[in-house]
Structures are given as C-alpha cells and as structure tokens.
Amino acid sequence: MTTQTKPHTTLSSKTSLRWMTVTAMLMAVNVALSSFGVPVPGGHLYLNDIVICTAGILLDPFGAFMVGGIGAFLGDFFFYPTPMFVSLATHGLQAIVISLCVRHAFKGRKALGAGLGVFLGAIIMVTGYSLGRAFLYSTPEYALLKLPFQILQATVGAVAAMILCFRFQLLELYRKMGTP
Hints:
The protein is mainly alpha-helical. The protein has seven helices and two strands, in the order αββαααααα. It has a two-stranded antiparallel ribbon. α1 packs antiparallel against α2.
C-alpha cells in the first residue's frame, strides 16, 4: 500500500520560480535588444542598457549578472561575436554594482541607492566598452570615436530604468509578487 502525497509547494519554491521566470524574461529581452541598434548620426544606439539597469534594480546580484552579463554575451554571440567577452564582463559588472547599491547603499532609500548604482554602472559600461574597443580593434581612436554613443547609451539606460522602476513603480510591483 503506497501513500500518495501532494507535491510540496512552499513560499520559497514559488519565489524561486518567480525569480527564474523574471530573470529569464529579462535575459531574453536583453538578447533581443542586443541584436539591433537605433541608427543615430555617426553610429547606433543600443537599448539593452535599459534592461540591464532595470534588472540591476529589481534582481539580486546573481540574477542581475545573469541578465546583464550572460544576456549581453548571448546577444553578441548570436549577432556580432567580436565583443561578446567585453559585454560579459562589462555589463555583468555593471548589473552587479547596480544591484549591490540598491540593496546596501542608503538603507531604506532604494531610489537613492538605485541612482548611485546606475551612475556607477554607467561609468563602468562606458569605461569597459572604451577599453574593450581599444583592445579588440587595436586603436584607441576608434574607442574615442564611439565614446559619445557609449555615454548616450549609458544615460538612456540609466534614466529609463529609474523611470520604469520608480515613476511607474515596477520595483513595487516586483516586490508585491513576493520575490526577494
């Protein structure tokens, strides 16, 4: 005689499933937005920084790294593989720093911590891609030529993520879902 038991569902398993779902969804959006750029005079503007900064604000450091680093790596791998390792390191570190600032800087004042995080993340992104381009293409001039686009991309990503998470209350909605 066997006893049948119901599957054990705990709050932590539901939370883990939500975390995995949100992380995977944001990673997929990052891959998609890494695949194309908005043409601007003299170059392209990539919108994936919006997703990376948003993930940094919403997720823990590991989830933020998965979305930022692994997501950008996969986007480059599929569409333009030359800078994929630069993307992994730069966007991964950017997302981790944002997540850590949100969670540990200015306790109780998430918006202030997020503001510091996206500012530091923008500096990491611009510096990382400038150094990465100078190394990959063996020309500092090319890195300097692309610097205004990197600054614009970092600024758009930081501002849009702050608006999404705090003005449109995405962070509050994410917390109400019962995620960590």
